[in-house]
Amino acid sequence: MNTVVVLAGGESRRMGRDKLMLEICGAPLLETVVKRFRGEFDELYVSVADAGKYPEIAERKLVDIRSGAGPISGLHAALAAVQGDGAFLVAADLPYSSPAVAKRIIELCGEKEACVIKLPDGRIEPLFGYYKKSLLQLCEEAIDSGDYRMSGILRKADTRFISPADLGDLWRDELIYNVNYPEDYDFVRGQGLGHSIIKN
Fold it and tell me: How many Cα atoms occupy the beta-carbon half-sphere of 29 within 13 Å?
């Protein structure tokens, strides 16, 4: 069973307003990402810090069990809830995220505990990656210790870091482009998503 969890628990401090409600091609960013992944996985959850947020989203919501730790709170709640081997995390502020790439990353994970993209310059994208249930205890330990960095989980786990080359023709440079600042939104609205959206 493959499960995707759309992370929607951020506070949008850098944007100055709820970025997930910003319209992209006529729909809020959150709805755009959820719609793209809907039906592509056996299960889809939307991870939120507050159960009452985004009432317009019909998908099942996962509320943080251990709140206040950022994305690790969402990962923890996801791994505690999923029925299968693990969960694919996709941040809701990644307008070009692709279900086809997500499925390929799950395949590439193999026997490892996690699988994420590592760019040639060394940067990683932990919020578009696959995590197995065996990491639940590591999440709890991280939250207990106050080390909320996703990179800390990935360093301690048996992680496979894949390159863009590992994804072959599925790779696009904009795949992990995220919307954090007003200028990011202007780019996506003005020229990014409008003409080069990844549809699968």
Answer: 27
| Count of beta carbons in the 10 Å neighbourhood of residue 85 | 15
CATH number at residue 141: 3.90.550.10
Burial (CB < 10 A; 0-12, 13-18, 19+), residue 134, is: middle
Q: Where are the alpha helices (DSSP H) in 23-158?
A: 29-37, 71-81, 99-109, 136-145, 150-156
Per residue in 5-25, pLDDT tens?
Answer: 999 977 777 787 788 988 887
Domain-embedded: residue 198: no
Where in the sequence is the domain holding 65, given as residue range(s)? 3-193
The number of helices, as runs of H, and strands, as runs of E, in the chain is 7, 9
Using left for φ > 0, alpha for ψ between -120 and 50, and beta otherwise, residue 24 falls in beta
CB 7 within 8 A of CB 89: yes
Query: Quick check: is 137 in a domain?
Result: yes
37 domain residue, yes or no: yes
Identify whether 94 is part of a domain.
yes
This prediction's pTM? 0.91
